[in-house]
Amino acid sequence: MEPLLTHDRDLLAGTVVDRPNRFVVRVDFGDGPERAFLGDPGALEGVVEPGREVLCSVVDDPERATDYDAVAAVVDGVHVSLRAALANDLYERALSMDAVPDFAGYALDRPEPPLPDHGRTDFRLVTFDGEPAYVEVKSSTYVEDGVAKFPDRQTERGRRHLRSLRGLVENGVEAHLVFVVQRPDVGVVRPYRTVDPEFAELLGDVRDAGVGVHALSVAFEPPAYRLVDPSVPVETSA
């Protein structure tokens, strides 16, 4: 299958020195630490750690506070994407390629649509029978023994999204949550109960209420992002 996306800038390998805040990682490319923008504010436990190899792109923008973008970390030989926002693009591309069986026959209507009551979600689709379906996408990178766990940091925003999806289905509108695991070494997705037990409980509740809960996995094989498994199982029970 053709790649979902490709990274169109050169990649420079370095070593993680430290992470001074959620959005910056300092990387040594051989001449001392440089600051790189980290587009994933999660805890990134086991992913962004001192001594870890990381791939970055040079950014030529005098208005930027950082001269590099962190693109991926290498964990046990696996490239783990560090671009959380890319999850939306990966899902959208897989959908356009009709590569996600759970959404066969669905078409993109618009990104970031307003919800009927308040707020926004990531996508509004049109089902095969012409009805709207709303989709919220979550990026996942924490994997332990083949199990992807989400979230890796407490997320009130994520809980709010789940409540919004439940509100949609309670009003007769189709709604889905899609986890995009941005690494290939995963066989199942589960909520990370010890990190955010309320999110874990809500995830089970909204699935019981009728929200579709799905996952797919992607491999970054520089420079290509490839779909690995379009139907990763999601387990929500305790």
Describe the structure.
- The protein is α+β, with helices and mostly antiparallel strands and 238 residues long.
- It folds into 2 domains: 5-81, OB fold (Dihydrolipoamide Acetyltransferase, E2P), CATH 2.40.50; 86-229, Trna Endonuclease, Chain: A, domain 1, CATH 3.40.1350.60.
- It contains 3 helices and 16 strands.
- It has helices at 86-96, 156-170, 197-209, and strands at residues 5-6, 12-21, 24-28, 33-37, 53-58, 68-75, 78-81, 107-111, 123-126, 132-140, 143-144, 147-150, 174-181, 188-191, 212-221, 224-229.
- A 7-stranded mixed sheet has the order 1-16-15-13-10-9-8. A 5-stranded mixed beta barrel has the order 2-3-4-6-5. A 3-stranded mixed sheet has the order 11-12-14.
- Helix 2 packs parallel to helix 3 (197-209).
- The longest helix has 15 residues, at 156-170.
- It starts with a strand and ends in a 9-residue tail after the last strand.
